[in-house]
Amino acid sequence: MSAAGRWLFASGSARRLGAVRIGLFSLLAWRLATNDYASVAGQPKALFDPVSLMKLLTAMPSHEVAVTVQVVGVLAAICAAAGRLPRASFPLALACSIFLNLMLNATGKIIHNDVVLTLCLIPLVASPRAASSAYRLPLPWRLRPAWPPTAGKAFGWPLRTAMVVIALAYFLVGVQKLRFSGIEWFTSDNLRWVLYASSDAHSSPSQIALFVADRAWLAHLLAAGTVALEIGFPLCLPYSRLRWIFVPGVVSLHLGIYLAMGLDYSAQALAVIIVFVDWPLLLAWLASRTLTRTPGQPLPSRADP
């Protein structure tokens, strides 16, 4: 087996995979509950511009269908986050999400805010038993909880596959920038004009966007940094220490895009955090910091040695 194969199929932690399951399906439930699918439901046939599987339909689904799928999707995602009925709740939540997002994309404009989240869920759907082994909500009638194995190969590959999905998503976006624009993407005034156009399109222009656009050197620096983050993101797969640079970097990138242009990629940013942060290790570290303090002992003052 190649080095990449050994990395992908190495042993993993059941608890970390369980934490990722809770995070991703909770994020999916939030997205399904808050996205406005009713605004496109029941649109006239003349406005129906289907893509992908939505081409199987002859018209936009009705408002009643959209609401029903939305409610079922939210309930299934909550059930999946709790680790219950994984063989049914995992694929059902994902299918409802795909259906509703295809509705949004059948209006003549491709909306890809939830693509990374959707792709990260596929490895979990393919491994329902492993993904629901840890942190599963106990049933009230079960007196003795079943303790899962703590580690194994079955728990490693779904998480690392999600990492690869995220890394490739950023890498391919960066490649496409250089493919169609070359280095002019960050050496020209491309980003400045995008920021100016975005400010002109809003009644209250973003002062952050104007601040960057008015300073050519800053716009070029941020554009070059964006491409570097996207192209270099796969490096944090074999070199875990680089995640301290690339994960905060891309999260800051999405935050900056939102503040400057109002484009909401919070689902993608949160998916990056959920997948790449070792939550059980973080919780264990926080617990150890808390337990090192004796109960009732006052915190030392600055004057204490």
List keywords for this structure.
305 residues, 2 domains, two-stranded antiparallel sheet, 2 strands, 62% helix
What does this entry look like structurally?
By secondary structure, the chain is mostly helical. It has two domains: 11-138 and 151-155, no CATH class; 170-282, no CATH class. The chain contains 14 helices and two strands; from the N terminus they run H-E-H-H-H-H-H-E-H-H-H-H-H-H-H-H. It has helices spanning 3-8, 14-34, 63-81, 86-104, 115-126, 128-131, 157-181, 184-187, 190-200, 207-213, 216-232, 243-261, 266-276, 279-291, and strands at 12-13, 151-152. A two-stranded antiparallel sheet has the order 1-2. The longest helix has 25 residues, at 157-181. It is globular and about 55 Å long. Residues 299-305 have low confidence and may be disordered.
Structure described in brief:
By secondary structure, the protein is mostly helical. It has helices spanning 3-8, 14-34, 63-81, 86-104, 115-126, 128-131, 157-181, 184-187, 190-200, 207-213, 216-232, 243-261, 266-276, 279-291, and strands at 12-13, 151-152. Helix 2 (14-34) packs antiparallel against helix 13 (266-276), helix 4 packs antiparallel against helix 5 (115-126) and helix 11 (216-232) packs across helix 12 (243-261).
Tally the helices.
14
Shape: globular
Q: Biggest sheet: strands side by side, in what order? A: 1-2
Radius of gyration: 23 Å
Q: Roughly how much helix do the residues carry, as a percent range?
A: 55-70%
Spans of at least 5 consecutive residues whose pLDDT stays below 50 are 299-305
Can you tell me the number of structural domains?
2
